[in-house]
Amino acid sequence: MKEMLQTELDKHTDWEGYIWMIEGKEPKVYKNKAITNLSDLYSNERPFSKIQEALLYSATAGKSLWVRNVDGEEKLYIHKHADFIDGKFRTDEKDLEVPGFAKSIIKKLKFRQVYQLQESVTSPGFESYYPVFKLFVGLEK
């Protein structure tokens, strides 16, 4: 997973977001920066040197990367924002407050809520937009 993430990061130099390691006391924050050496965050001396969570966004790529640690395994999710621009999807922007322990570093996380057009559960024959997930689009420091 680490190599696949580094390959994605090497494609652009305007990453914004954070990477929070399991052992880290606070996240490593990036604002319009290249992330060239991801291996600097990992350590062979510490057995649990893995990403707990990472949210990264590149405006030039129109892409969000989300890394989650699930049962000790890092999972990488890649969302291309252009995939959600058609009649079946609708989006709007939301700001989320960050939990208290990281507030001194990051003020707000910015997301684009994605809604998908689906047949209504309660009214057969009618369609409604239902929230399906949030795309990360940056942060406010």
Structure overview:
The protein is mostly beta strands. It folds into 2 domains: about 1-80, no CATH class; about 85-140, no CATH class. It is built from 1 helix and 8 strands, in the order αββββββββ. The protein has one helix spanning about 1-10, and strands at about 15-20, 30-35, 50-60, 65-70, 75-80, 90-95, 110-120, 125-140. The strands form 2 sheets. The chain has a 5-stranded antiparallel beta sheet, covered by helices on one side. Strands 6-7-8 form a 3-stranded antiparallel beta sheet, with no helix packed on it. The two termini are about 30 Å apart. The mean pLDDT is about 85.
List the topology elements.
Elements: H1 2-10, E1 15-21, E2 28-33, E3 51-58, E4 63-70, E5 73-80, E6 89-97, E7 108-119, E8 127-140
Antiparallel strand pairs: 1-2, 1-3, 3-4, 4-5, 6-7, 7-8
Keywords, separated by commas or semicolons:
2 domains; 3-stranded antiparallel beta sheet; 6% helix; 51% strand
Gap between N and C termini: 28 Å
Helix percent reads: under 10%
Please count the beta strands (DSSP E, at least 2 residues each).
8
Overall body shape? elongated
Rounded to the nearest angstrom, the radius of gyration is 17 Å
The structure class reads mainly beta
Provide the domain count.
Answer: 2
Pick out the low-confidence regions. Answer: none
What is the helix/strand order? HEEEEEEEE
Biggest sheet architecture = 5 strands, antiparallel
Q: What's the pLDDT, averaged over the residues?
A: 83
Q: Which sequence of strands runs across the widest sheet?
A: 2-1-3-4-5
Annotation field: number of helices: 1
Q: Report the β-strand fraction as a percent range.
A: over 45%
